[in-house]
Amino acid sequence: MEKESYHYHRLFNGIRLIHKQVSSPICHVGLVVHTGTRDERMDENGIAHFIEHIIFKGTKKRNTYQVLSYLENVGGDLNAYTTKEETFFYASVLNSYLGRALELLSDIVFNSTFHSKDIETEKDVVIEEIKSYQDNPSEAIFDEFENLIFDGHSLGTNILGTKKSVKSFTKKKIVEFIERTYNSDQMVIAVVGDVSFKKCIAWAEKYAGIIPENRRKYQRQAFTGYTVQTMTKKIHGLQAHAMIGRALPHYDEKKNQSAILLNNLLGGPGLNSRLNLAIREKNGYVYSIESSYAALSDAGLFSVYAASDVKNIERIMELVHKEMHKLQTQKLGTLQLHRAHLQLIGQTCISFESNLTEMLSIGKNHLLYKEVETIDQIIKRIESISAIDLLETAQEIFNTNSLSTLILKK
Questions:
Q1: What is the pTM of this model?
Q2: What is the DSSP letter of 150?
Q3: Domain-by-domain residue ranges, the chain?
Q4: CATH code assigned to 230-409
């Protein structure tokens, strides 16, 4: 495999730059802020996501149309997303327009004006987004499950907020949140494209380096005290929806990779996952079934989701626990382990075939780690996972007495 490397630079104000040069006509650039829903106070629920919306509505030198058209006029794309822990603003452009993209990203993040009229209009947009999620139980159940798992902690609050909280947002609240959480030492600029590292440094210094240093003055509250929860809620719909899972402690890199591989075996994206074979292919109970493992900066979350006719839900839950039990008690053979390695390696390489995906990944990871693993290093770590590693991880994560359950049904 071709040798690859990432290049690093830190601006005087603490903003970090990570860069990879690739042969491509397109450059992907992002500015990621280590700020998300978990950084909100009780009266701010949904404000991190709301800022992701309102930040495109105009700056000190651009109106909404000028913000939205500046890259689109040259065929570029501008986008953003918010999670529990970060907010990512990013763009894709021809390599020759990287400077243009970085200037725009810096302008919207650091110079947005937040006019009252735009705030009121965007409230309606976000409330419609909330309604669309509430109308879709296959989406809503993921939020409700996190609320259940992380009950009483900011990790358990909804990214979108509520109608009531969104209606309460003002320019004052928005500015206060940004001043408190958009800290220069918690920002990363990520670039993947056919542009030299030297040019990237020059543009980063020019557009983001002029921002005064603003280091984070608070520490996030770590999640502790997970307790098992079981809940059933009534909904209107033709299907029942179920989730099983638990909160996890923060894992080191080796154990984190073991959890990723274990999840891939159980219910990952492959059609040959154990849950898909046992529940869809063998019994026809579901259209889709999936498990997921998310590593947060100081915790983790494992879950399984399924939707089916209500009469099949109990049987599906039994089969999920049965497949988990097998992974806890039956060590993989040499050939099974080799196939599991190959599958995850292939999936990882395919995901990194997208330069946009790689840019988003390295930007997020550089928030947490001084250096980001290359694809070769990730492959070596996957290959180092043993059958015993998987068995021990399964015994911890899939312990029946530690799993919570949420069911939505008529």
A1: 0.94
A2: T
A3: 7-207, 230-409
A4: 3.30.830.10
Residue type, 38: R
Task: Examine domains 7-207 and 230-409 and report if their fold is the same.
Answer: yes
Neighbours of 322 (CB within 10 A): 12
Q: Provide, for the chain, the percentages of residues in helix, strand and coil under a 3-state DSSP scheme, each rounded to the nearest 5.
A: 50, 20, 30
Q: Which residues pair with 299 in a beta bridge?
A: 249
Mean pLDDT of 229-243: 94
Mean pLDDT value across residues 131-147: 93
Q: What is the pLDDT of residue 213?
A: 96
pLDDT of residue 253: 87
CATH superfamily for domain 7-207: Metalloenzyme, LuxS/M16 peptidase-like (3.30.830.10)
- Contact residues for 291 (Cβ-Cβ < 8 A; gap 6+): 263, 266, 267, 268, 273, 275, 302, 303, 304, 305
Condensed to tens digits (0 to 9), the pLDDT of residues 359-404 reads 999 999 999 999 999 999 999 999 999 999 999 999 999 999 999 9
d(CA 329, CA 331): 6
